[in-house]
Amino acid sequence: MKVVAVKNFEEMSQFAAAMISYQVKEKPNSVLGLATGGTVVGTYKELIKDHGQNKTSYENIHTVNLDEYLGIEKDHPNSYHHFMMDNLFSHINITKDNIHIPDGLATDYEEESKKYEKVISDLGGVDLQLLGIGVNGHIGFNEPGTPFQSVTHVVELEESTRQANMRFFNSIEEVPTHAITMGISTIMKSKKILLLVSGKTKADILEKVINKDITERIPATVLKNHPDVTIIADEEALSLVDDEKKRGFDRDKKEFTSTYLLSN
Ligand code: PGA
Q1: Which of 218, 80, 34, 37 lies closest to 143 in space, CA to CA?
Q2: Does residue 37 have its Cβ closer than 6 Å to ligand 1?
Q3: Does ligand 1 lie within 6 Å of residue 133's CB atom?
Q4: Cβ(193)–Cβ(158) under 8 Å?
Q5: Which domains does the chain have, with CATH numbers?
Q6: Which helix (H) or strand (E) covers residue 207, if one does?
């Protein structure tokens, strides 16, 4: 696990976009695993800017999104379909048929989950998976306690997740109670993983992910088992992590191999 310590949200977004755009240029038919939420919005803005300025092409890129709420229409303003169209896809030259997001209106969830796993494996797996993290440590919508061997499945959202996402809705009642998400083993099969963490509200969980042992109670700790994970975290998110770790002085090389400080 590498931790890239950056100053703020803007620097995090620039760094993440640079990594994604590098992947797209290196392998123009890459499979990108994409995420939704407040954390990734700046990264998508940077990618749109880069597409405009440098003509980075997404024509042959395939995307698979992590998750979708259950029971809301694709064009509902709070659906993740809508989020992705609004924040990224309608601003770049992606081929519509290459976009994959779980169907939150599927009637047979089991079937939809199997279909989604097949989409990913038929594409040859995810080259680069972008992740945010929940205040409870979830990745995708894999809430605490989700088995590490889980594949795409339907989940009941924790109260803390619904509260955190309420800011996008008018009231807590409107926040869906269930979602369909890639499983933890689906995420772990990605060749590279990029986890973005920003702000004070994530400081507590980031400290746990970095310092605690791997446990299903904190889903993101599973990332320590992956050979190629980069965490890009800003000063506020890293505020509870020891300075010595931030400086790259690592006592436990297995869990935390190196740190780069980009700014003072
Ligand atoms: P956020 O969500 O980026 O809106 O904080 C991240 C997540 O819940 O995974």
Answers
A1: 218
A2: yes
A3: yes
A4: no
A5: 2-263 (3.40.50.1360)
A6: helix 203-211
In the three-class reduction of DSSP (H, G, I as helix; E, B as strand; rest coil), residue 51 is classed as: helix
How many other C-beta atoms lie within 10 A of the C-beta of residue 168? 14
- 10, 238 Cβ separation under 8 angstroms: no
Rounded to whole angstroms, how far apart are CA atoms 136 and 148? Answer: 16
pLDDT digits (tens, 9 = 90+) for 25-83: 999 999 999 999 999 999 999 999 999 999 999 999 999 999 999 999 999 999 999 99
Kindly give the distance from the C-alpha atom of residue 229 to the centroid of ligand 1, in angstroms, as a whole number: 18
- φ, ψ (nearest 5 deg) of residue 159: -55, -40
Q: How far apart are CA 100 and CA 166, in angstroms?
A: 25
Catalytic residues: 67, 136, 138, 143
pLDDT in tens, 179-229: 999 999 999 999 999 999 999 999 999 999 999 999 999 999 999 999 999
Could you tell me which of 202, 197, 176, 179 has the C-alpha nearest to residue 15?
A: 197
| Strand order through the sheet with 99-100 | 99-100, 62-65, 31-34, 128-131, 192-197, 229-234, 2-6, 258-261
Nearest to 206 by CA among 184, 239, 176, 177: 239
CA 141 to chain centre: 10
The CA-based diameter of the chain, rounded to the nearest angstrom, is 51
Give the C-alpha distances (Å, rounded to integers) separating 125 from 108, 116, 117, 179, 232.
24, 12, 9, 22, 23
